[in-house]
Specification:
Length: 384
């Protein structure tokens, strides 16, 4: 047989150059190697030291040197969980609805304690822009004890027929600018419906709040939407409830009739002193100076009453609520939330003005203040 490699069909196998591939020659068979005879060796005996070796102690590892501490990275923000109150097993979150309910109940209770009167007349002028408040400080001594009369220096009871303070607060519509607080001198000579012309505070003596509101509407052309009145004793109690008010006095004033003796400069006034400060006319401009002091005092009182130190202090907040509710008189359609809106408007630094006057005169009703017709008309037109 030739030495050409063939496939299983017997055909010769060629390489890539076309040459026949030769078979590999078979290797000759090798004879097996003779195994060496294993010699029998006697068993090896171990010494006691080899059978029970003593363990070698491990070397002590060196104590690693502590690495310097690196400043820890700020942990990611995590919302704090409100601590749970011990003893009742409830969280502070559960107190929020209770506080809201307590606030609602307190608000409704204060609303029921307000003194309500028929202040708005049956026939009023047409609606005007914004919201208008008539703020009145009554000169009444009714309800004051002999000790209060001596402490406040108000004199005896003269009834409810006089007003020491008359202010008109105009709150514009939302986005319409700042509120405007206009002082109306109590001796202003104006027409009083059904009673001819007289001092404007005489309207309160003739017909109470309704006639006073009607007189103000006829003189200004502005529709009065809300009414608020406070008496002498109530004013002093409110001041004492907030711990006094800080007022800067321009000049020293000594008025025994108002039980007032203050020096120039900023000072803290208690209830009786603050009451005398807004009542006195013992200065050069008399009633005109008084309306300026009344606006200054009202601003200082509202700042103190609405400050966090008062609202968060129950020993001041509770007496303030009780005295305010018991001494304020409002129209029957007014509520405590209207007073809150009033306080917010007063706290927003309203523009303060006094009705422009042209001079003074002596009539059969006494010394009166005369308005400047043109300037006052421009003022009222700007608020309509």
């Amino acid at each position: 047989m030739d030495d050409i490699a063939r496939d299983r069909n017997g055909n010769p196998i060629y390489d890539r150059y076309g040459r026949p591939v030769r078979r590999r020659a078979a290797r000759p068979a090798q004879a097996p190697r003779p195994q060496r005879a294993q010699q029998q060796q006697p068993p090896r005996r171990l010494t006691p030291q080899q059978r029970f070796p003593v363990p070698t102690p491990r070397p002590e590892r060196p104590v690693p040197t502590p690495r310097p501490e690196r400043p820890m990275a700020r942990p990611p923000f995590q919302r704090r969980r409100l601590p749970r109150l011990q003893g009742c097993g409830c969280s502070l979150k559960a107190l929020i609805p209770l506080l809201l309910v307590l606030l609602l109940v307190t608000t409704l209770w204060v609303d029921t304690q307000l003194n309500r009167v028929d202040a708005l007349p049956t026939h009023q002028v047409p609606n005007t822009s914004g919201t208008n408040w008539l703020l009145v400080g009554s000169d009444s001594r009714q309800g004051l004890s002999e000790a209060d009369i001596q402490r406040l220096g108000t004199g005896g009871d003269i009834g409810t027929g006089r007003t020491d303070t008359i202010m008109l607060l105009h709150i514009p519509r939302l986005g319409g600018g700042k509120p405007t607080l206009v002082s109306i001198p109590r001796d202003s000579y104006v027409p009083i419906p059904g009673h001819g012309s007289a001092k404007i505070n005489a309207a309160f003596a003739y017909g109470g709040p309704q006639l006073l509101v009607e007189t103000v509407e006829q003189s200004t052309g502005l529709r009065i939407d809300h009414y608020a009145e406070i008496g002498m004793g109530g004013l002093a109690n409110v001041v004492d409830s907030v711990g006094g008010v800080q007022i800067c006095v321009k000049e020293a004033i000594n008025d025994p009739l108002a039980n007032l003796n203050v020096s120039a400069g900023c000072q803290k006034m208690n209830g009786p002193t603050a009451l005398g400060y807004v009542r006195t006319r013992a200065t050069a401009e008399g009633d005109l100076d008084r309306v300026v002091r009344q606006r200054q005092f009202l601003s200082a009182l509202l700042d103190k009453a609405t400050s966090p130190w008062t609202l968060l202090n129950p020993f001041r907040m509770l007496p303030l609520i009780m005295h305010t509710a018991a001494t304020f008189s409002v129209d029957r359609g007014d509520h405590v939330w209207h007073l809150a809106r009033l306080a917010w408007a007063m706290r927003s630094s309203p523009e303060t003005k006094t009705v422009p006057i042209s001079g003074f005169a002596n009539y059969d009703v006494g010394s009166v203040v005369l308005w400047d017709d043109n300037a006052s008309a421009q003022l009222w037109n700007s608020l309509r």
